Amino acid sequence: MYLTGFAKHINSNFSFLKEKKLLIAISGGIDSVVLTHLLHQLKYNISLAHCNFQLRGKESDLDEVFIKNLSKDLSIKAYTTQFKTEQFAKELKLSTQLAARKLRYDWFYELTQEYDFDYILTAHHADDNLETFLINLTRGTGLEGLTGIPVINDKIVRPLLAFSQEEINNYATKNNIQWREDASNAETKYLRNKIRHEIIPSLKELNPSLLESFTKTSAFLKQSQQIVNDKIKEVYEEIISEDRGILKINISKLVQLSNPKAYLYQLLKDYKFTEWNDVYHLIYAQSGKKVSTNLHTLLKDRDFLLLLRTDKKSPSNQEPIIINKENTRITNPINLLFENVHQQKKINTNSIYVDKNLLNYPLSLRKWREGDYFYPSGMIGKKKISKYFKDEKLSVFDKENIWLLCSNDDKIIWVVGKRQDKRFFPTSKTTELLKMSI
Amino acid sequence: MYLTGFAKHINSNFSFLKEKKLLIAISGGIDSVVLTHLLHQLKYNISLAHCNFQLRGKESDLDEVFIKNLSKDLSIKAYTTQFKTEQFAKELKLSTQLAARKLRYDWFYELTQEYDFDYILTAHHADDNLETFLINLTRGTGLEGLTGIPVINDKIVRPLLAFSQEEINNYATKNNIQWREDASNAETKYLRNKIRHEIIPSLKELNPSLLESFTKTSAFLKQSQQIVNDKIKEVYEEIISEDRGILKINISKLVQLSNPKAYLYQLLKDYKFTEWNDVYHLIYAQSGKKVSTNLHTLLKDRDFLLLLRTDKKSPSNQEPIIINKENTRITNPINLLFENVHQQKKINTNSIYVDKNLLNYPLSLRKWREGDYFYPSGMIGKKKISKYFKDEKLSVFDKENIWLLCSNDDKIIWVVGKRQDKRFFPTSKTTELLKMSI
């Protein structure tokens, strides 16, 4: 009965997973265990990945044992790992929750690269989605905050997003599935707890099929968001030009739009202005008036609004950050970890391996300049950074946020988080291996 | 203190009301009384309109007395009227709530016409807006259901929409304002009550400035909705053509859009399809496949989706509805009320006055046909109905929903709800006056 509903949904909406190599992120809780049983029954090609965050002592270890047993019972390959989460969180000055999240996803992506998985599957469901919606609603948000958890983004797929916690519970009961109660679930944080145990039950009293309605609502909002994005892209092309890193917004074209404020907000929302009324007033202000944040200034200049960097230096003129040989970790302006390792795993965009003896210290971390070039991994020969950014379709904003890690002689080692330079690749002659991670 | 915040907001956001003639819809409850005091203090040109719905016996009468006294105290003109609401609701087979709403707004529009008011002001506030949002959310909705109550639509303006009930209460206290407690408020319907007294307080515990955040959210969503509308209008022009009342959607253009489903939904959402998955499947289906509702059929026809009427008759071939001389009210297919009256007030789009002796019975109510013409009020000479519809920019869907009231000799008396025909206008020679209202 429940099997049929679930199976039908998976087979009709996720048929693209059928011939793929799938990695299920499994905690041992009911949701991820049900997802595993379901896809196992439907004969998808799955493996399991379980993180032991060592946050709940013996309970965490028992979770790990449970996953190993499940793996044996179902004859599914399971990858497990243990993290010193608290220590990592302290070192990176992150909350435990964020640290666990970073550890988890970095590791999943590593496994994906190492063993050629096509997708990572998580067991998020409709209740999670509604909770996220309501949390964003209480905080104040725009359409993008109400479109909910995506079914697919990048390599992550969430096949259970259309099902409620209750349906998952029923499926587990009917199919006699065992799982591990997650103690942290019962004492989850105040906010989500209140929404889960107080607000959502109240809303369900008003409409017992709340989750079903909400799933439709969420899908409609995602569609509307996509239409907004299409229109904004079109308007961007029409009214914005870029001149040496400065965005120029054509005001006479802007004011011809049905709602210039709405469009200006959408065009500039990534730049973190807070005084939007002041921003809107610039449209009709005198030449020379401006609104600034720490990072950017929007300047009225005759028929244009110019978006400039507030510090007046172009990114290339900022002082580089120096990294000495003894630095094993920096946390400012970005988190960067240097580890001596013995073995190289496949790379992902969050970490690279280099031959330590090829590096000339001190290293520096700086923004890009005109004329920069590098030898991108996976490509033949050298390439201008400006050309690389253009090919990657990065916005002015994205480009300003990218750091280049350079050697003492200013050779680029890593376009951080994007692409490694081949010149520092480990070779068969490498004796000391250095792993760099963000 | 509170005066300053309110006054500043009104003066900076509603300055367009300053030189206008304004009619405040006033119940006697705290919200509308505060709005009245506030605009009175700010010296706006206001009058009051109060309906006594006679639903709460003596209490209703005391409300009316309260308004009359307030009018004297502040030296503001007040219009009051009494309705037999229950009787009207029974006759029109409407809920009491809907009947009161219809009576109220019809009368407000009548006053607006008769005394040349520019705007009708209502005292809806941020809590009302959030309640409406949450009600729609529980029912399941799209973006349009989450954009909330509009600040301005047509002639109705809601100056307090950015303020919370609490702020309004504080304003009343600080300014020593008296109002009438509305007994029906305390025992309001289950749904709104639960949202007001249980769900919103819970959400406020999570974020004390919930309403402020929500007001911003609501404004952002309205902006997104407008961007969606702009894009859909553009896409409509690009991919839809109209041929003798049939909409033709160009599939090869549709599938080039980023998300054909999202666009197809937006283009067709007024046609009340429920099986949207079936509708989407038509894009790739064989020629001849179709999806139908009671009213419409969407048919795959080679490279097009055709939107046709399900009953296969064109609207002009449907049987007209006959109205005999003794009919004083019909309720099917639309509500239409005929009253002998002695005095003519200014017309509005919901009612017309005709010279009863010019009518040849039986009248008929029918859809338009090619070749129909009439003598529209406010214009010189005659005009084809098709031309009139085109000038009014009506969609195929709108046109199908319009009724023509015709005399026995098939002369058009009224394009119902839109425009009267001059040939039946009362003149100085008129002895019997008939009022027709929807």
Automatic annotation (TrEMBL), chains A, B:
InterPro entries: Lysidine-tRNA-synth_C, Rossmann-like_a/b/a_fold, TilS/TtcA_N, tRNA_Ile_lys_synt, tRNA_Ile_lys_synt_N. Residues 363-436 form the Lysidine-tRNA(Ile) synthetase C-terminal domain. It holds the Pfam family ATP_bind_3. GO terms for molecular function: ATP binding; tRNA(Ile)-lysidine synthase activity. It is found in: Cytoplasm. Its EC number is 6.3.4.19. The N-terminal region contains the highly conserved SGGXDS motif, predicted to be a P-loop motif involved in ATP binding. Ligates lysine onto the cytidine present at position 34 of the AUA codon-specific tRNA(Ile) that contains the anticodon CAU, in an ATP-dependent manner. Cytidine is converted to lysidine, thus changing the amino acid specificity of the tRNA from methionine to isoleucine. NCBIfam families: lysidine_TilS_C, lysidine_TilS_N. This is tRNA(Ile)-lysidine synthase.
